[in-house]
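Fill in residues.
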């Protein structure tokens, strides 16, 4: 398993981790600024949700990613020297970040750190939106997680509201 991490240099920043093979968005958090944000909590959350360390962590050269990686994923190969056209890059993450930025611009920014918009967009990205690079599958389909029914939003809401 490989993870790519990406941030955004404008205002409210969304930091995400995804599985490279499936584009499944694992975890996200909002930071006031990318440069001064401690990403250990985000990486720890991703580690908890995955249940293991990734083999490879691909990030840009931001120092906070390196510091957090050393503490949370000490045995993971952290690759920070990336280029747009190189063999190792985080272009998929940058593309996903751009998609979210487009939505954020229309909303004129994320008003609060705990906005439901990011969680909703994460659900949309993982379970509803087909991805061309995944041959029309959603990331959840690529992971073997299927959502039945014509209205996937309704199915997700119904499943979330069930009491165990």
């Amino acid at each position: 398993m490989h993870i790519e991490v990406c941030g955004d240099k404008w205002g409210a920043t969304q930091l995400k981790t995804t599985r490279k093979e499936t584009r499944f968005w694992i975890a996200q958090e909002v930071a006031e600024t990318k440069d001064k944000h401690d990403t250990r909590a985000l990486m720890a959350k991703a580690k908890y949700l995955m249940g293991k360390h990734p083999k490879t962590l691909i990030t840009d050269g931001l120092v906070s990613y390196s510091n957090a990686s050393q503490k949370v994923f000490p045995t993971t190969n952290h690759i920070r020297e990336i280029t747009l056209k190189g063999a190792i890059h985080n272009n998929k993450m940058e593309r996903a970040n751009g998609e979210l930025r487009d939505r954020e611009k229309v909303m004129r920014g994320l008003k609060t750190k705990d906005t439901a918009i990011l969680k909703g967009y994460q659900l949309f990205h993982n379970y509803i939106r087909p991805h061309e690079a995944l041959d029309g599958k959603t990331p959840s389909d690529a992971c073997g997680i299927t959502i039945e029914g014509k209205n996937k939003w309704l199915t997700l809401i119904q499943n979330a509201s069930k009491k165990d």
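The chain is about 40% helix and 15% strand.
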